[in-house]
Amino acid sequence: MTLRIHDTLRGEKIAFEPRDPKRVTLYVCGPTVYNYAHIGNARPVVVFDVLYRLLRHLYGEDHVVYARNITDVDDKINKKAMDEGVDISVITERYARIYNDDMTALNALPPNHQPRATAHMGEMVAMIEDLLERDMAYVADGEVLFRVSAWDRGAGRYGQLAKRSLDDMIAGARVEVAGNKDAAADFVLWKPSKPGEPVWAGPQGLPGRPGWHIECSAMSEAVLGLPVDIHGGGQDLIFPHHTNEIAQSCAAHGHDDPAAYARYWMHNGFLDFSGEKMSKSLGNVVLVHDLIKDYPGEVIRWALLSGHYRSPLNWTPELLEQSKKNLDYLYGILLRAKHVQPDETDEESFDELLDDLNTSGAMSRLYLLAKSVELSSQNPDVISNDKGNFLALANILGILQQDPEKWFKHGATDDLSAQVEDLLKQRAEARAAKNWPEADRIRDALNALNVEVMDSPTGPTWKLKASV
Ligand code: AMP
Ligand code: ZN
Predict the structure, then answer these.
(1) What's the CA-to-centroid distance between 167 and ligand 2, angstroms?
(2) Which ligand is nearest the CA of 234, by number?
(3) Residue 176: predicted pLDDT
(4) How many CA atoms lie less than 13 Å away from 210 in the CB half-sphere?
């Protein structure tokens, strides 16, 4: 089984070959924790969670190391802390916890490492010292800046990831042309803190705080080692964030080849809302924290995986409703086929996912497999290969792993569940005693509770009618 991925650096779909199949490494840029995550921020989390699950399937659970950082040093964090009159750690702890809870609600597995910038200051400072020593960086007005031309040396390697010339990139990204820069493309590695902001002892003893890009360069090297196999994030990170990570990490170690930092680069497309990229700055955001109050996490996850990860995804209420219907349909089959025993899986079940994470293709396969499971469920004691295939594929997608009864009871309180179970017991007794008026009365009582009973070879199951 070969995994093929679209590598942003080479600009094509290629076979993935890890540096060491016993230790496959994945680094994904995580959130800046000063606010609630919106559903666009959840897209990379869910997409790379599918990749993580697939890599674990291919190489073994203990042979994949996944790091997703927390950016806990940032201007926006400082501003929020000042506004609330608290230490930045109060803000970062609060939003990191909410972020992790929200992503868990979307069935995202916890990464093996979740490094925080504040815990890796020493590595950042050391890397900046190395860059200064190699003349790849310079000090100006208390800042340390990276000298892009010193690494690029006219070879165009700085623009290799973004596939654009230096001039285009600078014009497009409206890079700040500060007075202390030798060239517009140069970027900040270290800068002084403003009064009242947290301060660390920096390179050459300069007090201040790191720039955003150096945080990821230091953390990925510290927790995974270089080169990382796959580095990922949203397309907006290609330039300047990932471009600058490559430049400074390669320059610090005397490498010219961008692959010395990360061997493959993967970027997800944007999630759009009302025709524009969802973003905090545009204010058109839907928070994961709010969505999970109204929809099961699996529904949101299905919606996020319903399109190809590199394509834009238009977020609409209809998309959520359709995702809910699809899951209800498939869980309905699992419910009626509860007695069917899953058998060994076939490797071809993963063909779509192995083709650059074609999740929507994998979902179509789930439908075909479900039809086969449905057919076999008419037999009271059957073993089905396709049920095994269905469950294994759904597991990589991170969906359809719940007990189907539990799925349909979503929203039912414990009280209601106990009441229904009790009525079902009474119904069985009434039927056994051929007490039909009593059985009818119980049926009406269940109806009044909005409960639909389904009889199956292994006994009755039930669901709330409104949920289908
Ligand atoms: P941020 O907190 O803005 O740095 O974003 C965290 C992650 O979410 C990064 O990988 C971004 O590329 C990604 N991201 C932000 N907005 C969107 C969006 N609308 N669609 C898809 N990914 C996004
Ligand atoms: Zn990063």
Answers:
(1) 23
(2) 1
(3) 65
(4) 26
List the chain residues with pLDDT less than 50.
Answer: 467-468
Backbone angles phi, psi at 188, to 5 degrees: -75, 130
Res 174: pLDDT: 61
For helices 75-84 and 88-105, what crossing angle results, to 10°?
Answer: 110
pLDDT at 467: 47
Asked whether 40 lines ligand 1 (CB < 6 A), one says yes
- What spacing in Å lies between the alpha carbon of 36 and ligand 1's midpoint? 12
Partners of 200 in beta bridges: 208
Evaluate: CB of 398 within 6 angstroms of ligand 1: no
Strand bridging mode 24-28 / 228-234 = parallel
Cα–Cα distance between 30 and 41 in angstroms, integer?
A: 9
Check residue 248 and give its pLDDT. Answer: 98
pLDDT of residue 66: 98
- For a mutational test of ligand 1's pocket, the pick from 28, 43, 239, 266, i.e. the residue with the most ligand atoms closer than 8 A to its C-beta, is 43
Q: Give 192's Cβ-side CA count (13 Å radius).
A: 7
Query: Which pLDDT does position 312 carry in this prediction?
Result: 98
Separation CA 125–CA 110 (nearest Å): 28
For the full predicted model, state whether its pTM sits above 0.85. yes
Q: What are the tokens at 434?
A: 């051929």
Cα distances from 55 to residues 59, 76, 229, 451, in angstroms, run: 6, 34, 11, 41
